[in-house]
Amino acid sequence: MTNSAQQDDGWRRSWFRKAMWGGAAFLLLLPAVAMRFTGEVNWTGSDFVFAAVLLFGSAGLVELAMRASLSLAYKAGAVIAVGTTFLIIWANAAVGMIGSEDNNYNLWFLAVIALALTGALVAHLRPRGMALAMALAGIAQAVLGAGGMATDLWGGVLSASFGFPWLLSSALFHKAARDSLRRSA
Known about the structure:
185 residues; mainly alpha; 7 helices; flat
């Protein structure tokens, strides 16, 4: 990993960065506008705070990842991990992954996210450690999804399938680590 002050790969000026932050703001504004025209959308202040933290928190994590490494594989792995985290939290909050959003089993999927985050912190965001953390998250996700199949077959299958993006992220971090070793040799 290099210092972000030493690297400039165009991220700060990229259209993707502007689209990411603008898209997050746009998605947060959609329900506010919809509430003016229909009674079908009825968000509370806490709904907006939750959505803002989720959207802008995810964008912030992608922002940090883009500055953490020049490796395209590293960046892609980070974007997939953040996107998977976003989707798991959103799905759990909206409808629940197993049964309804009120099913306590769904809290276990937050433990998968905690596992990935803890692993990333322990690895100091280095690609080799990130690969291991995302692989463990993928396995945990698949096991928890399979365990939920007894309660909700399709929810369990969908939940288990979220193991795939975690494993894809792991493979990309592994590639970034391999590429880094080749460059240093």
